[in-house]
Amino acid sequence: MSFIFDGLKKLEQEKGCIPSPDYLKDKFLKQIPPSSELLQGDFLKNLSLKNLSLEKVTFTLIELVMVIVILGILAVSAIPRFADLSGDAEDRTVQGITSALNAAAAIKYAESAIAGNAAYPAGGAALLLAANITGVTLTSSGGGTITGNVNGQPHTWTFDSNTGEVTDDI
């Protein structure tokens, strides 16, 4: 059995790695006489890297510290990219409400055109009823001004009943 370990040491020095169990079986078991007790029983089944390794392979403390430092650098560079996403989400919500109000104005115009009286809604209140936006409380103070809070921040939308266009304050 010592010739297997001697051969394994030689291969580690030459190749710089531990060879696979299949390679070891092909290389070294050919040297064992067929009548040998090594070939009897479960020896071949138990032949594996775990059983043949000469020393345990571990990471050094310096390698672990370097991995932690690299992960720290990645974390420091990635956190600012995701830290201020709430502002972007608020802007996209306001733009989504603007799009919904514009779509409602177009639908109301189409409905009135089918009825024979093509016109946009008269003001913000009629537009809000048509839009049916949920999740955000919007109010119309008369005319074409619509106000509401998105993520606790006040926003204003302006509706032009002549052109049917809604603009936001972003």
SSE map:
Blueprint: H1 2-15, H2 21-28, H3 43-46, H4 49-52, H5 61-83, H6 85-114, H7 124-131, E1 138-140, E2 145-150, E3 153-160, E4 165-168
Antiparallel strand pairs: 1-2, 2-3, 3-4
Helix pairs in contact: 6-7
Protein traits:
170 residues, alpha+beta, 2 domains, four-stranded antiparallel β-sheet, 7 helices, 54% helix
Describe this entry's structure for a reader.
This protein is of the alpha+beta class and 170 residues long. It folds into two domains: 2-81, no CATH class; 86-168, no CATH class. The protein is built from seven helices and four strands, in the order αααααααββββ. It has helices at residues 2-15, 21-28, 43-46, 49-52, 61-83, 85-114, 124-131, and strands at residues 138-140, 145-150, 153-160, 165-168. A hairpin with a 2-residue loop joins β2 and β3 (153-160). α6 crosses α7. The longest helix is centred in the middle third of the chain and has 30 residues, at 85-114. The N and C termini lie far apart (79 Å). The mean pLDDT is 78.
